[in-house]
Amino acid sequence: MNKKIQKAVAIILGAFTICSLLTFTACSKQDTTKEESVIVTEKAKIKDADAINYIESYSSKQLGLTDEEKKACSFMVASDGEEIDGKKYIKIIAAIKNEQKGNDGQVTYTFDTKGEYFISFNGDEVLKKSGDAYSKLELITTTKKENK
Fold first, then answer.
1. Any idea where the domains of the chain sit in the sequence?
2. Entry pTM
3. 134 phi and psi, to 5 degrees?
4. Tens digit of pLDDT for each residue in 107-117?
5. Which PROSITE patterns match (predicted)?
């Protein structure tokens, strides 16, 4: 090949390589303008084990579970809070743990979620999620009765 053809091929290959790199970089670049914020739950009045105990204090019917499901469920608190309609909540999940043993003898676990519940950070509202909708549960309060 003569030098002009070699130079033209080198320029074309160089341009192709640069375009490919720019396209790859543009496609693989994540959107840095959108910030995903984590909702920390430190300021919530009811959290951790207290949140689990509070949700477990509801009846099976109130939670939308059968008695058998409620007995079989493990209640777990999500590590991050959630925001629903501008209000912050602690998320509690009721799930049944299923153990499966593979052909290789390896045991794996899956969780079948039976219910999702949300306690507002200030403790004044409890929601139950059904599909994409949320319904309020009546708050459970305890009061000491005086002997008269």
1. 48-137
2. 0.68
3. -120, 140
4. 999 999 999 99
5. PROKAR_LIPOPROTEIN
